[in-house]
Every structure is written in C-alpha cells, then in structure tokens.
C-alpha cells in the first residue's frame, strides 16, 4: 500500500502565507520572494531539512517535504500547515528508486513542475576507520549521501527545465576537516563538493544553478550521535570563532537566498555555515 500524502485542509496545499520579508540589496522590502515557486526538500521532517522547508515556505514557495517514516512526515507537515504554510508531505527514503519515483510523481501531480531541489537527507553511521569499513556500509553511505541526490535530480530534471531553478546539496564541514570516527562519511561529503561543481557545469546551459551548503556543527538529532559527548561539544564551542553551536535556522536563510533571484549569478559554490572561517 502506498504511504498516505499529508494534505492541507483545502486539498494538497494551504494557500500560500507569505510571512517573511527579506530586505533586498536595494533596501526595498520584498514579500514572498519565492512566491508560486515549488520546492522539493529531502530529509525534511526534522533538523536542518525541516528548518529549510519552513523557511522556503515562509518565503512563499509551495514545499514538498519528505523522509523515511510516515509518522514523521505527518507530524512535520501538520506542524507547518498549522503555521499557515503551503506544505505537503510524502514518504521518501532517498536510497530507494521507487520512493524517489513516487516523490517526483507526487510533486508533479500536484504542482506541475519543480523549481528547487534541496537534498538534505544523509546517513551518518559512526564507522571509524575507512579501511576497516565493510563493503555493505560503503555502499549504504555512498548510495544515500552521494548517488541519491544525482539520481533524484536526473528524475526531476525534465520538469525543472525552463524554470530558472536551483539545486542545493548538503555537504558537511567534515568535507574540509575530516574526523577520524566519521570515516567514509567524510569521503561522501567531500564527494558532494565535486558533485556540486560537476552538476553546476552540466546544468548551466539549462539555466539551473547548483550550489552546496556546508554546515558546521548544528544542534540536531544527527549531531547528538556524531558529537553527543558533552566534553567534545564544549571543546568544539571553544574552538569556534563564534563560540556557539549552530541552530538549524542558521542554515535555512542561506538556502532560501541560493534559491532566490538574488543568487541568479551564483553557481558551483560551497557555502560554509559553521561559526568560523573555513578558508585556509
Ligand atoms: P536530523 O536532525 O537527524 O534529520 C534528518 C532528517 O532526514 C530526518 O527528517 C530524517 O527523517 C531524514 N532522513 C534520514 N535518512 C533518510 C533517508 N535515507 N531518506 C530520506 N530521509 C532521511 O539530521 P540533520 O542534522 O538535520 O542533518 C541533515 C543533513 O545535514 C545531513 O545530510 C547531514 O550530513 C548534514 N550535516 C549535519 C550536521 C549537523 O551538525 N547536524 C553537520 C554537517 C552536515 P526519517 O527518520 O523519517 O527518515
């Protein structure tokens, strides 16, 4: 049986509530900078993906949220709909071809096309040494973190053309500063930097921009696993120039900007949101 789509009370989407206002570089207030655009965000029922989905919807977009578990999809969609945002949800494990197909079909059926894809879903088993990692774990991490964004994009591409759209991949500061205990995860997140540049090149003729968000340590369930140890968190805080751990919302505005016309000449870039300068 197909998982149910989380619907708004007036059919699929709530009417757009354009809540947020961004000051443009000209200093003029602009409401709903993403109005009437359609965004698909993977891994978006909690953490960074949820904050991004909420922000894109606050900025006027219709947003399709998704993750592996129906109850998470229902809870997240209901919460955003209660806030008056135009959001619908569907189950999608990004590593499963049939789930990706259903996500694409659902977005098309209800929105007719897609402008923005944000690939936030990621897997982070603490695997330790890269050379000690089994082939099965290698495959799982590369499948979810690296292959799935490219495969989902290839499925969506015919419906993103001629819409001046944008894609945002989500890497990690571990791509710049690998950590011993994260092993293959470091490798997968570094591969996403290369994927960003390659896709930016390939999709420029189609007027689709591709950029990459590079989060530092952000307070989510995910980072509880990878940085859960209090003394490690304290150490990290002290090392950061900004002396605080990031919040998911710290990542959300950057992605909205990257989708917006304000970023119309930005492609192939990695943008770190990490509380310190990642430049060497
Ligand atoms: P999170 O709070 O644990 O949220 C993960 C979200 O992804 C959930 O909605 C989860 O819902 C969904 N998900 C997990 N596996 C999935 C899969 N295979 N297919 C589809 N959805 C899936 O994680 P987060 O911290 O926001 O992390 C999001 C992304 O940011 C990841 O790519 C991670 O590598 C990256 N990142 C995070 C940090 C950090 O410090 N938090 C730092 C650098 C990079 P379900 O359980 O329902 O699937």
From TrEMBL:
SUPFAM superfamilies: NAD(P)-binding Rossmann-fold domains
MF annotations from Gene Ontology: carbonyl reductase (NADPH) activity
Keyword terms: Oxidoreductase
Gene Ontology biological process: cellular response to oxidative stress; electron transport chain; myeloid dendritic cell differentiation; negative regulation of apoptotic process; response to toxic substance
Organism: Cercocebus atys (Sooty mangabey)
Organism superkingdom: Eukaryota
Family: Belongs to the short-chain dehydrogenases/reductases (SDR) family.
Name of this protein: Dehydrogenase/reductase 2
N-terminal signal peptide: none
Gene Ontology CC: one annotated term: nuclear envelope
InterPro entries: NAD(P)-bd_dom_sf (IPR036291), Sc_DH/Rdtase_CS (IPR020904), SDR_fam (IPR002347)
Gene: DHRS2
Phylogenetic placement of the source organism: Eukaryota, Metazoa, Chordata, Craniata, Vertebrata
């Amino acid at each position: 049986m197909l998982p149910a789509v989380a619907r708004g009370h007036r059919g699929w989407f709530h009417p757009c509530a354009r809540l947020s206002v961004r000051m443009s570089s000209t200093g003029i207030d602009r409401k709903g900078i993403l109005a009437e655009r359609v965004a698909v965000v993977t891994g978006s029922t909690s953490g960074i993906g949820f904050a991004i989905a909420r922000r894109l919807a606050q900025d006027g977009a219709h947003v399709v949220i998704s993750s592996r578990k129906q109850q998470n999809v229902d809870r997240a969609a209901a919460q955003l709909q209660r806030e008056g945002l135009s959001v619908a949800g569907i189950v999608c494990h990004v590593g499963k071809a049939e789930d990706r197909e259903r996500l694409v079909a659902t977005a098309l059926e209800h929105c007719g096309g897609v402008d923005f894809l944000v690939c936030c879903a990621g897997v982070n088993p603490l695997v330790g040494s890269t050379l000690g990692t089994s082939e099965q774990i290698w495959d799982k991490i590369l499948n979810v973190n690296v292959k799935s964004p490219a495969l989902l994009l290839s499925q969506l591409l015919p419906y993103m053309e001629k819409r001046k759209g944008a894609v945002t991949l989500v890497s990690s500061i571990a791509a710049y500063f690998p950590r011993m205990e994260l092993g293959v995860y470091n490798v997968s997140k570094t591969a996403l930097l290369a994927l960003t540049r390659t896709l930016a090149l390939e999709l420029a003729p189609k007027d689709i921009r591709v950029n990459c968000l590079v989060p530092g340590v952000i307070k989510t369930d995910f980072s509880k696993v990878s940085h859960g140890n209090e003394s490690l968190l304290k150490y990290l805080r002290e090392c950061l120039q900004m002396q605080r751990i990031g919040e998911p919302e710290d990542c959300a505005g950057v992605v909205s900007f990257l989708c917006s016309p304000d970023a119309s000449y930005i492609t192939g870039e990695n943008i770190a949101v990490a509380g310190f300068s990642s430049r060497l």
